[in-house]
Amino acid sequence: MMILCFDIGGSRIKAASADADGVHPLGDAPTPLTDFAAFLSVMAGFARGRSLRGVAISIAGVVDPESGRITVANIPGANQKVLRDEVASALDLPVLVLNDADCFALAEARQGAGRGYRNVFGVILGTGVGGGLVLDGRIVQGAGGFAGEWGHGPVVRAPYAFPCGCGQVGCVDAIGGARGLERLHFALHQRDAPSTAILGLWKAGDTQAARTVDVWCDLIAGPLAMVLNVVGASIVPVGGGLSNVPELVALLDHRVRSMVLRRDDQPLIVPAQCRVEPGLIGAAEAGREAFGG
What we know:
By secondary structure, the chain is α/β, with parallel strands linked by helices. It has 2 domains: 2-100 and 277-291, Nucleotidyltransferase, domain 5 (2-Layer Sandwich), CATH 3.30.420.40; 113-271, Nucleotidyltransferase, domain 5 (2-Layer Sandwich). Helices cover 37% and strands 22% of the residues. The chain is built from 9 helices and 12 strands. The strands form 3 sheets. Strands 3-2-1-4-7 form a 5-stranded mixed sheet, with helices on both faces. A 5-stranded mixed sheet has the order 10-9-8-11-12. Helix 1 (36-47) crosses helix 2, helix 3 packs across helix 9 (278-291) and helix 7 packs across helix 8 (246-257). It starts with a strand and ends with a helix.
């Protein structure tokens, strides 16, 4: 018997089956954003005709580990529902629901850059900033499901303290992701440019882009170093769009290693290795543990 895995985002629902031989993609479908019955129907369609132990879901939302209630702003139809119970009732199977950054961290801990390390802090530098924490091989969700969310809290000061979607001002999330890099570039040089262009110019030696990247790195390195001191991470795999620039990850690694208490000549912050479907891989790993198989 297999485990049915889903990676659910605001545009697509990706599905896979998982067994002892690995993770086997089953395809994907558009995510119904407001029609919850249609949302459940998509998952039921992938489950139909399969002999399953359970369902493991990675989703771009915060899952309260106590109540099971999910906060997922980009899928209004599922927001504030106990998704675990709703899917279990619809599919008549046990269900596990986890945050996508937690699944990313678990995928890296079990099958990626974190293999062989005791404590893994997975960092997402994408449109915004996220993270997931795996200690002694197990995901740490924390109160309310917010463990690993290092991107929020008013830690960045003026003149680079930008408003954040969480309602605070000065969060790392507002400056550390791709959109934040673009805001910072405009604040420094009054020039609009996509993050890909800024980083391309930086690698080509452009002085303005170099200034932007230098300030960006200084602004996020300190908060990240403090988090790593607290959680005792042995390795920090980085995913998300900005991780596609290895030189940027290497620069951040150099800055952070100069700030953390544990000094080591080996890289601490490294590009993620599970580049394809880390959400499905992490969901499969958690599902095997929860349901067997």
